[in-house]
């Protein structure tokens, strides 16, 4: 509804998760993740850290989906809500061997 009827910007940001794609990645909600990507959500937005949080949370399918959409594996965030840096650093810090 929000994306289709009200044309909400899928890249809009907020203080908690950065953007909607990051929130969907954190929750491993593939249906919402795919809706956001189809609506033009930027996997490499400087205001989000979807790949990093998916890797840190161990959401393998989400990581795969983001990589299919050309997420930058070397992107590094300095956001205070996710201080781990890169996806690899987040996965290592959280002992997510399957992601590493």
UniProtKB/TrEMBL annotation:
Pfam families noted in UniProt: Ank_2 (PF12796)
SUPFAM superfamilies linked: Ankyrin repeat
Entry keyword set: ANK repeat, Repeat
ANK repeat placement: 16-48, 50-78
Protein name from the UniProt record: Ankyrin repeat-containing domain protein
Superkingdom of the source species: Eukaryota
